[in-house]
Design goal:
Distance between the termini: 38 Å
CATH architecture: 3-Layer(aba) Sandwich
Number of strands: 5
CATH topology: Lysozyme-like
Helix content: 25-40%
Radius of gyration: 14 Å
Shape: globular
Order of helices and strands: HEEEEEHHH
Strand content: 5-15%
Number of helices: 4
Mean pLDDT: 91
Strand order of the largest sheet: 2-1-5
Length: 129
């Protein structure tokens, strides 16, 4: 994946990449557009790259390699930071590449990602004073 990140012609980038051990790599400033969503639509918004923040988790995306607790924790922390900076980004606006890719079914990532658990953890942290 990092090879593609280094080649501008591939037009693949993320704002944040979270490594398998939970290390956080900020690749594109949040205020700038990254090339993470591809052909996509979220609710009434097309071209999701124009109005979203892309966070990628290092994983084989085979549905077998688990997402490690350190990775999920780092992802929660990144999302909390983003949500506190931009209050318009709420829990109901966090989704996956597979759910926004057009046409539906074109992408599978992040396969096996525990989205319900991830959103639950975010909700718990947001509700803490």
């Amino acid at each position: 994946m990092l090879r593609k990140q280094a080649d501008p012609k591939d037009r693949v980038s993320y704002h944040v990449l979270i490594g398998r051990l939970g290390d956080v790599y900020r690749l594109v400033q949040f205020e700038h557009r990254a090339w993470h969503a591809g052909v996509s639509k979220y609710r009434e918004h097309g071209n999701v790259n124009d109005a979203s923040i892309g966070i990628a988790f290092s994983n084989l995306n085979d549905g077998h390699e688990p997402y490690r607790p350190d990775q999920l924790e780092a992802g929660v922390e990144v999302c909390l930071d983003v949500m506190r900076t931009w209050p318009a980004i709420t829990l109901d606006r966090i989704t996956t590449h597979a759910l926004i890719a057009m046409p539906p079914g074109r992408k599978t990532d992040p396969r096996g990602f525990p989205l319900a658990y991830f959103l639950y953890e975010l909700r718990l942290r947001l509700e803490k004073p």
